[in-house]
Each structure stands twice: as C-alpha cells, then as structure tokens.
C-alpha cells in the first residue's frame, strides 16, 4: 500500500526566524515550501478563476477571505500531487482555515505529521526587528548589533544609504505581534488538542533552533 505524504506546518511571530527554519526543514525532508503569499501571487499572475477572485480583493486592499485562500491552497496541493510532502508557511492563519485544511489533507489522502511553533519573547523580537537596516539601492539587510555595516548608515556592497523600514519600528512591531497572537492562538490550540504541536525555543542561535526542530520531528 502506498504511504501517505507527510506534511508539516510552521508558525512563528515576525522576526522569529521562520524563513531560515523553513529552508532547513524543506531541505531536510524534501518538502514543497508552500507560502500562501507566493501561491496567491502565482494564481493571480496566471489568471486562474480563483486567482481572478482573489485579485478583486487585493486590488481593493481587502483581505482575501478564508474560503478563497483555502481554494487556492487546495489547487496548489493537487498540482504538487501525492508524491511529495508540503511545508505550510503562513497558512493556516485562522481557525476556519485550519479546520478547512484538516478536510483537504484527509480528503486528499495526505498526513499532517507535525505542527511546529517557534516561540520567542516579545522583547527579543522587538530587538531583532528594530535593529534591522536595509539598503535603499540593493535591498541588502543589516543589523546594527548582529550584522552591522563597516561604516554606519552605508551599505558595504553598493555604498547605498541604509534606512529603517516602517515595519521595523517598535510601535508597528508591537501591533504586528498583537495581530499575530490574536489570530494564531486559536489555531495553535486546535493543533495542541490534536497532539500535533511541537514548540521550540526560538531565542537561541538559528543552528540550535534548527537542531531542536529536527530533534522534535524525527
């Protein structure tokens, strides 16, 4: 009997290092990295029926409704097929999306194996993001403590001016964190009840965080 592909979901607040760990997981387990932002843009660019529907919302600055997001995710899963597992990144964002994903996975003969949540203290998150600087010319990213430029305010590569993005200001980060927790806590509780949730300490060095994740899911 053919085995079901194993899928993984990863959660983490802004600045928790989710992108770095997603790369590690997809490489280690040969998973398809499914980022909802990427597949939404892809569906819109291709002009699929669901993509056209999503475009109506994005063009007017509205959030794409749960049912449309789920349809786009389901279409992508079918395209990937049942030979390869998927790492879900940025999805599900709401309890309704999580419940819909349960049905998609079960109905598609797949297996949700693990749900990873990277946990980092709010003040640590703020320090990480507030210290980021980006080059206006080449978009290279620095950090005033962890990865400073050789000359303050100047990009090492192209000599462009470094600036702090609005998203990286303390008050904006705090609001982003509030939104993340309000949306995500019910989803995490949903997976905790299913005994799928694995929490890892994201305050450590990225390599240590990666080792924790692999130790939890292998």
Tell me the major beta sheet.
5 strands, parallel
What's the alpha carbon Rg, rounded to whole Å? Answer: 19 Å
Distance between the termini: 22 Å
* Strand segment tally: 8
User: What is the H-and-E element order?
Assistant: EHEHHHEHEHEEEHEH
Number of helices: 8
Low-confidence stretches: none
Helix content: 40-55%
Averaging pLDDT over every residue, what do you get? 92
Strand order of the largest sheet: 2-3-1-4-8
Label the overall shape. Answer: globular
Q: What structural category arises from helix and sheet content?
A: alpha/beta
**Beta-strand content:** 15-25%
Molecular structure report:
The protein is α/β, with parallel strands linked by helices. It has helices spanning 18-29, 36-46, 49-59, 66-80, 95-107, 122-130, 170-193, 206-217; strands spanning 6-11, 32-35, 86-89, 111-119, 132-135, 141-143, 162-163, 197-201. The strands form 2 sheets. A 5-stranded parallel β-sheet has the order 2-3-1-4-8, with helices on both faces. A hairpin with a 5-residue loop joins β5 and β6 (141-143). The two termini are 22 Å apart. The mean pLDDT is 92.
